[in-house]
């Protein structure tokens, strides 16, 4: 199984540690370990035995995860080492060589390259910035002219932050129901106020983690929520690769979700404050535009300058420590991934530096 370099992740690996002003971190103000330990009012961690634990995941934790959905049982949830592995487990369990997969661009590279590595035929549908990063309805119809085993998307989308409009989502569900097509939806940026595909479609699979809105990317704790028969098949596969996430991670995740209202409120306030900064900046910066997302921590900033996004991002990092992921990592030039996770003053400073650079480039 051959895979190309994961461009976004390689960029982060190569450059993020040099950042003084990180404008592209997708995790909201990560908690410190001591902050997370502060939730352990009943000293649950004192009694944790460091064995393998409950293989599909601690039942208390799965019950708390279930509260992020409007239906289901804990037997429809299994754990993974982050959302990335949750996606991989689903794809490796369901996809076979020759299967047809539909996904979208710009989006997360995993959705396209992992199915290809498994021998699948992958149809990639473009998202249009002019329509708010939505697919064309006729493209959806055309994609289903041949049988489709799985549709893979994420909502909110990375890097655009977009969510399918209700009429397009309904059309997608209708097409998938007709063909009994699986929908794998990476919902790692989903606010629990949003509906989940796993709650509205019998072949819907939701993957997520504690990384983004719950501010615990370093915990590497994700999950799959899907039909019970699929979860059983995934659990069989997990025995070959990870066995379990372990009682320490499970207990820490349980403590976090017991405090989900606090964590979500904290994240929503940070995201709202950063969005306000970006909106103010956009009113004064004619060389930039943005489809402002309703949910999530990411957006895709378009800039007006005849400079490749890789060069722009490298220049900003070298000159001032301002760090972006360039649109080239998503095969979409003249864009930068901009997130709403920084301290608002940091967000304001980074945008000011970007403006100065864009103005110089026009001289």
Automatic annotation (TrEMBL):
GO terms for molecular function: pyridoxal phosphate binding; transaminase activity. It is an enzyme of class 2 (transferase). Its EC number is 2.6.1.-. PROSITE patterns: AA_TRANSFER_CLASS_1. SUPFAM superfamilies: PLP-dependent transferases. Its cofactor is pyridoxal 5'-phosphate. Residues 49-348 form the Aminotransferase class I/classII large domain. InterPro entries: Aminotransferase_I/II_large (IPR004839), NHTrfase_class1_PyrdxlP-BS (IPR004838), PyrdxlP-dep_Trfase (IPR015424), PyrdxlP-dep_Trfase_major (IPR015421), PyrdxlP-dep_Trfase_small (IPR015422). CDD domains: AAT_like. Pfam families: Aminotran_1_2 (PF00155). Keywords: Aminotransferase, Transferase. Belongs to the class-I pyridoxal-phosphate-dependent aminotransferase family. This is Aminotransferase. It comes from Stecheria intestinalis. The lineage of its organism: Bacteria, Bacillati, Bacillota, Erysipelotrichia, Erysipelotrichales.
